[in-house]
Amino acid sequence: MRLKRLVIIISIILSLISGTLFLIERRSKAAADKIFGNMTYLTNSPYFSEKASLVNGRYEWNRKTENNVFLSYNLQYTGRYVYGDFNYDGLKDAAVIIIENSGGNADWHTLAFLINDGKKFIHRASGLLDDRAIVNSIRQKNGKVLVDMFVHQDGDCMAGPTRHVKSVFEYNGDRRWIEGRRISAKSFFDPIFYILKNPSSWVYVLERWKIS
User: Fold this and answer.
1) Can you point out the beta strands (E) in 152-202?
2) How many CA atoms lie within 13 A of 11 on its CB side?
3) Per-residue pLDDT averaged across 122-144, rounded?
4) Which of 10, 90, 98, 165 is deepest in the core (most CB within 10 A)?
């Protein structure tokens, strides 16, 4: 009887701890999303503007020229981010994933380095991930950002990148654009994870992995 009560008490305590940690993490993410979803980012479209300021995670612009050519641009914060000291000055910086579209079919996923100047985050540098990259995770290690994702390889459709890689990005204060170092992360379980993310893609997945 005493053992049963002890098990119940321990279960209740563990549940309370798990619930508390979940609420803390949720509040932390909400605070981060509010910051990163309402700040100014450098763009990949200087012909349009060098910078764009998001409101609630989005920025949209469009107009028709005198020659009846329709121009558009949009920028979106994805909710993916990681904190770290990327310029090694002791302050907490951030790296977030944004998506840019300049009016065509490409949705460029970009890693944006947001450097803390002591008062606020400022977008200093970027690294291209891929058009419509499927991001599995983003984390930091020793001041570097690691992005686990699927990117395009020969034969992939535009909306279905199937090459599993880990890209490593290291901030360099002298560069606006940073080229990531890609490492193959191909796994036997890739097709399973892919289908779990998008159950309707199973026919495409089986065909692509059969070829590769």
Assistant:
1) 163-170, 181-184
2) 6
3) 95
4) 98
Distances (CA, A) of 13 to 2, 18, 26, 160: 16, 9, 20, 44
Find where tokens 């970009």 sit: 110
- Check whether 21 has a pLDDT greater than 50: no
Q: What angle do CA 56, 27, 33 make, to 5 degrees?
A: 25
Alpha carbon distance 36, 78 (integer Å): 9
- Identity of the amino acid at 156: D
Backbone angles phi and psi of 11, in degrees to 5: -60, -40
Helix/strand/coil percent split, the chain, to 5: 25, 40, 35
Per-residue model confidence (pLDDT) at position 132: 92
